[in-house]
Amino acid sequence: xxxxxxxxxxxxxxxxxxxxxxxxxxxxxxxxxxxxxxxxxxxxxxxxxxxxxxxxxxxxxxxxxxxxxxxxxxxxxxxxxxxxxxxxxxxxxxxxxxxxxxxxxxxxxxxxxxxxxxxxxxxxxxxxxxxxxxxxxxx
Length: 139
Known about the structure:
Layout: H1 3-16, H2 20-34, H3 46-62, H4 67-84, H5 90-106, H6 112-138
């Protein structure tokens, strides 16, 4: 990611934080609309799930300039997700739901440049988590 993309992601995430619960609720609704079979992966309270998603995104956004911290944590998260039943193909659906939810939450502030920055961030997150998933499947 470029420094400009990092700044865009960080500034727009600051705008999402006050509405994080609504945005993550939109995310999960869209996720289950795109792939209803994913609902079975979520056994806990959805409020807890929404908070975990917000926390993970906050961690990623805040560590973008510290890849030495971010990437190992994302690989570990990907490996843990294997135990929840997450499959490689799910990452594409999650990305589509995330970008859609951010577009809903940010409205006019979700410009094409902001979308490109978030898409780049999600590619980094998903590729790194997938590498953790593949490592866990090899073990």
